Protein 1
Amino acid sequence: MEEIKKEDKHPEHQYLDLLNEIMEKGVKNYDRGTGVTSYSVFGRQSRYDMSKGFPLLTTKKTYWKGILHELYWFMSGQSNIKYLIDNNVNIWNDYPYKLYKKAMEKGDVPPMTLEEFVAKLKELPSDHPFVKKWGDLPHVYGNLWRKWPTKTGRLIDQLQWAVNELKEDPDARNAVVSVWNPEYLYSMATKEETSHFPVCHILYQFSIKNGKLNLQLYQRTCDMFLGVPFNIASYSLLLCIVAKILGVQPGEFIHVYGDAHIYSNHMDQVKEQLARTPLPFPTLKISDEVTSLDSFKPEHAILENYNFHPPIKGELTVAGGFFDPNEQKNNPQQQIQKPQEPKTSDTKTSDSKPSENKDIRQSFLKLIN
């Protein structure tokens, strides 16, 4: 596999440099609902020019099949994970199981492991009551992109409207799609209607400049190791699909990060990834069969020449979303104690072994320098 010469700055270094910055300067945070520790910085930006290759990260194998099917799931306005499970894409399984597990703890439903829960969703038909109730994630990306609910019951197809605007007016400044709906978020919503699953990439805008379509994403919370590689590729793919529909060339994907963080259980994986040298980006072709949003299918995106370093596995952290302090008070098993800060001037510590942090930090710095 050909590696990039040192004098040519590979676009992937934007991502790697941000990982490095967080490892060196990130501020320690706690998720109040789970007690999970992360380290973060706030307010950064990366830019990926599609003419320089498709930004599917190469310093670890990135799950292209999952990206394809997840984006199709979004674009088709779906919210039930059965489509993903049926296509052996399991990246969303933990979220509906989290709700099932809460009901299980209350004795409302039969005990079931995550594996049994997923297997049941897969074996049952889409119209089965169990699938409809427990497989659905209301108010997530797909149905808010394509079926935004209004007070009159009318549904708004934001993504189609944005495409139409750009067709009618290539200089349009209003081609914006948002999923930040306060009516269904956090304590702004009623407890019955609140979304228990945090929407992370909350707003994006298209703009045509010099005959090229650009897409800028604002992502309020960014899981740098697991989530962000997906997000970069997913929105770059969306950019290329919409450019194909509009009959223009894809330009830049601009990624604006809110809280960019690394979870404490991903530190070793990040160190391994930072020790690797990026490889040339692959290329992407969108089939001429794609003439509209609804005509796109996963097989219409053809990835070529993807060379990569071996995969690096990391555990998904299901954090954030709706927080109910009363629920924790009433359920001792769910009460979270904030860990005590270790008595050291170096706050970037391993929670389980704070005394070893200095050696870990020094070893890490040697690894990346």
Protein 2
Amino acid sequence: MVKQKVEPLRGKKVLVVDDEPDIQDVMKLDFQWVGCDVMVASSGNEAIHILQTQPIDIVISDIRMNEGDGIDLLRWVRQHYLKNPLFVLVSAYPDLSEPEARKLGALTVLSKPYKFDFITHILEQEISGSDYSLIS
């Protein structure tokens, strides 16, 4: 499948937070392909440092990481970050249900492995103000 440029995402600043370098690399390339500026962090603590120095529009974060997990990062963002970015949690484990993730302030929680096209669809629907909850 050929990836298409996703207009609503073009120019957005994305922070990918994952302790697996391979996932960081793939996500960085995928988001760059759709026109985003991408930064990566290996932990929640590293992500907080980046968020304190850079404006970020979208955070894609793993849940389970050493040195600051994704849930702690989400809580920090919602309490301290002036501009609340769109926040997507991902995990290979059933750590959190979608309603629990939304209650914490995440847009959604996705299970690994996930399809990049699904992430971009959710983000572009949120940016454009459409309801993506009806996606099967």
